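Re-running the complex after MR caught last week's input typo. The corrected sequence lines follow. Everything else is unchanged.
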Amino acid sequence: MKIHQLSLFLENKPGAMSAPCRLLAQAGLNIITLSLADTEKFGILRLILRDWEKARQILEKGGCVVKVTEVVAIEVPDRPGGLLEILDGVEKAGVNVEYMYAFSLRQSHKALLVFRFDHPDAAIEALLQNGVTVLDSLAAFGRSEE
Amino acid sequence: MSELWCDQGQGFHPASTSDYLPVPQLRDLQLRRLKSVVRRAYDHVALFRQRMDEKNLTPNSLRSLEDLRRLPFTQKSDLRDTYPFGMFASPMQEVVRVHASSGTTGKPIVVAYTREDVAVWTSVMVRSFAACGLHQGDIIQNAYGYGLFTGGLGAHYGAESLGATVIPISGGNTQRQIMVLKDFGVTAICCTPSYFLHLLDQCQALGVNIRELPLRAGVFGAEPWTEAMRLRIEAESNIEAFDIYGLSEIIGPGVAIECGHHTGLHMFEDHFYPEIIDLETDQPVPDGMEGELVLTTLTKRGMPMIRYRTHDISAIIPEECPCGRTIRRIERIARRSDDMLIIRGVNMFPSQIEAALLAIEGTLPHYQIILSREQGLDQVEVQVEVTPELFSDRVSALEDLQTRLARGIENSIGLRVAVRLVEPHTIQRSEGKAKRVIDRRTL
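Corrected-run output:
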């Protein structure tokens, strides 16, 4: 039920993001979603790709520092309070959210959230108990790569 | 009465008598003292005796000052290898003070002073201040750091013995420095030249016109500086800026000082015998030629140094100085022959940062040390290339890493540094080896 996310170290400077993006574009790999955490001095680019193993190889060969992290993707009802219900459940299980980011897909009215939990397995258990839809593979992300 | 004595015009301070010894008498004094100190080191310092024995030399081999060139050198690493007290020539009950400065690795080097050594140190500091035209009645703000660093206490004892009023304010706290400078009628200040430039900037920011204050002299040392910096200091503050030279291994500040002519620094060579050696051959070169300054302490008892390699590049100026002093001058020191860095007056080697990085994470990432000067203060940034082992996808973990690295380096070198994580392969390598230090400080 966990999916793989690639994290890249970036310096906080112009052009830092384009280098990894160029590597992926040249390899014909599509980014399903991403998030960028930034601080004054550096940033962390987090990427979700279907073919994450190939992407990792290409990025590392291109000189990037890449870390693979297991994250949890869930569906959230696209209405007020939708996120709150989910967070309540996770909170009760004593699980901490390290970070999260959201995106939506054209085809559906559901928002998708990517969570990095400190204890992903406990989080998944709590989420399932609360009837939350946890995506078990990237196939559910809809968009396909030609 | 003594307030009338000062080193200006035709007069000189009584404490400065030895600055004007006739040359033949000075050379005779040096030779007698040299024989005595070599004997002392040979009898009491195992490392020195062993080196002499290896060369089949005894103290009796020394018949003239020229014979000094046959004696073995002493290196900074010798002090580290014999840490902490291995180079002491006096039993501890005769040692009244120790100081320490940073060595090439985490361990400092320790230096010892007997009561006589402290007296000699005080006397050369009195002669230094006198050469700067200071005397009883002057109010001296001593902004060198007090503590293991020799700057603070060295200047303090000298200024007090001169009869001046000493303000032992130590380093840092710029606002308080300016308040004291303004309110206490300070006539002279001791600090690093870069810190004084910072004080000038801050005076301006606080609306204090330093030119209207009684301050008339600055005794600046503990780091290399240039003639351009002197011109800037003197133009902005309307004081006279003097360069003072010294190093802990020899005694501390007060090894050499500029007089009012500002054409090189007079070496107190009745106590510290200078040689200049060729950078390639290690052989002494004639006066006037550039090379590495090598110093022998002629009167030191607690820790005599025979032919100590300072790694400071200078030259002995053979011509007589218009001031009339017979002790020779050395050119002001602008560079070094090794990779030692002087940051805010503190000695540091890149290898210390390397050792700290290695100790913290267990692996050695590529790194680079960037030195710059902001508001007159040296800044150290250590750039560290992120490796897969160091990298985490959590911001807090990376910020922790930065803090851990900065603290570890700070503990090792005693200076605050900023750590900046950089992408892999961004630190330039030449022939596979990274250039470890980028010095952007403008003097």
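None of the earlier attempt is carried over here. Chain B has a mean pLDDT of 91. Chain B touches chain A through 18 residues (CB under 8 Å).
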